[in-house]
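Task: encode each sequence below as structure tokens.

Item 1
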Amino acid sequence: TTLFRSSYVINMWPIFILVGVAAVSAEPRYFHSEKVFRATPQNEEHVAFLASLTSAVEVDFWAPESVALVRPGMNVDFRVEAHKAYKVDRLLAESRMPYTILVENLQTLLDNQHDSNIRAVHSYEKYNDFDTIVAWTSTMASQNPTLVSRLQIGTSYENRPLYLLKVGKSAPNKKAIFIDCGFHAREWISPAFCQWFVKEAVNTYGTNAQMTSLLNNLDFYVLPVVNVDGYAYTWSNNRMWRKTRSKNAGTTCIGTDPNRNFNAGWCSTGASNRPCDDTYCGSSPESEKETKALASFIRSNLSTIKGYITIHSYSQMLLFPYSYTYTLTKDHNELNNIAKGAVTQLTSLYGTRYTYGSGAATIYPAAGGSDDWAYDQGVKYSFTFELRDTGRYGFVLPESQIKPTDRKSTR
């Protein structure tokens, strides 16, 4: 439709940028003296060394998401438990591969993450737990009935509700954009982004001409947390948890990577068929109740949903299909121009540098992602937005960074 011509979508980017034992234990997981390393392999020998190292020492990959995705020249960030850190440090030094220690003591970083002085139950400038976000969705709908309504699109494996907010002025025959946050449980800045986006939409309607026009002509479906069980688990047990919390047959390993669980080249590349891995693709496409609910809602509303944006962290990237193949989409040039325009705007206005491009070519191939799936369903304008930062804090971005991250992006 004319609403989604390239120039219009580029102009909409101020909206888009707004915004083990431990796995099953009832005791909180602590990370005292655990380190996060960054290694930069220069050649295939270094890549093979990292593969050998991680087969001997269990590590938690932060970026990329598994050793299978490591390529020469890329920064490889991974967490190592305290009692293994010295050995890993020594082996990396012996390898003559460039490396540094990004985080000397992860628990200290976690202890300092909640650096907001705000004491309100809910705040846009601090991280909110799942129950607080649920209450917030109810409040937003009840206090803004002409702009916001709340829908439950499903329930999780552990029977938590999946609430979606529909934001927009009521009118017939409106097109829509779907925005989701919180696919990976430990990416806390992502749900914070979705909450900030809704706040900005509601608070600036009627005073900001662009936002008023957008909400008069479009609906925004906002799902603040996709992986609700995993997100809750990061608050109660293990801050570094990534996957869902479903049980897997024949193993004690818990969960599936929800962003490897869609029927888009499912489990063909950049995903694992081993349930213990963080990139486990699941027993089948949409095996997870959460991904099934999201996909079912989009399928039921394909006649109106014309844009899809999924919010992740970290690495400051703007990606578009495809990730499951190097083949370019038929809309590649248009999507690339939109991404280029958005990234150029971010850099010129705020000095914030983002990398952009198709997923497979820009970072690495990864099958089963929601943006590829949405595109293949006919949602042409499908993007993945990787928020701050580039590794200084990684998944542990302090609360003091929430407002700068989102406020700069909304102007």
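Item 2
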Amino acid sequence: MFRTAAGVAILASAVGSRPCDSAPLKGSPLCDETKSTSDRAKWIVGQLETSDKIGLFSNGASGVASKGLPGYEWWSEALHGVGRSPGVTFDTETPCATSFPQVITTGATFNKTLWHTIGNTISTEARAMNNVGHAGLTFWTPNVNLMRDPRWGRGHETPGEDPFATSTYAANFVPGFQEGEDPNHVKASSCCKHYYAYDLENWGGVDRYHFNAIINSQDEADTYLPAFHSCVVNGKATALMCSYNAVNGVPSCANGRIMNGFARGQWGFEGYITSDCGAVSDVHNAHAYASADDTCKDVLEAGMDSDCGGFLHGNLLKSMQDNVTSESDVDTALEHLFAVQIRLGMFDSVNNQPYLNYTYKEKVNTPDHQKLAREAAQQGMVLLKNTNKAFPLSADNIKTLAVVGPNANATTVMQGN
């Protein structure tokens, strides 16, 4: 895994040192807020040498010092609160963030307003942590896969098993997360994952890295695509994540039909697409779909923009030198990445960016946020049949109560994914 140190990776978007405050970027078209996002992104990509571009494709993008571009860590997590991940730092300055219930519980509330409010609250805390360099601005949330089998192991990350309910969750959580008091900037980028037909960890001798989902056109349209369609069309998500598995023989991260075809072509997606971590390597190694050179070409040509992992870092330059991967596809991917960073305000003046005023003390794990988390847990409770009137437990008859099992006191595990 190729990463920059958290302090270096995140300062590009924090309140401190900013790329457009000094040479060589100060006064450049990248920093000209009167220009379109597209023009600004195209300009900076046009300034880069081929050798500059390679390090920008990992989740821990290295930056280009000679061009004034700092490193950036694209991978931050926030499924039910800002969470432990390469882009997030918890320490004495930022010891915690509000932990909301696992999404499977929140999904059981069927409360659209609550979903939107939780998304908004999480991104508020994310911005405050970013302002001290302890979080990124690109969060890989929500997980809108369907939980069709409780043995999957990742189902607690999702709203549940129903395509309509999951689509509705996406349509409310994503804009809650991305929108706020500043109409000119994305508050924090929301990434809908894992695209698509992904709900197997390791079963029957097949793991998620090798799994080839065989689905027909009706199941695709009725079951596996609606939530992602809603993410893009209703939620205006600024990111998608392609999954480890293949569908009908084509690895998701090399599937141009779903990325450039459906997402960008039919649904109007405007954002970046990242691989799941190691999924580009899996196109070559696990699925044996293409050579190393062709894997680089296939994923970029299909519409993927960023490799969470090191495959492109290690193989892209050779693929370009071998005239397999085109410079045009490389530049298109980089333009998508820079465009999202521009929309987040990373190359804009601090003036008129109210999110940059958010502080940890005032915005993170506040009493109001704790109250909201408690309300979400209460609303998500599912009633079970009280056979033989076992509940409530009698305080008169029961003086000692034991909680047993491997997770009885596993507080870290209970925080969830």
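Check on item 2: The first strand starts at residue 60 and ends at 61. The first helix runs from residue 6 to 10.
End of task.
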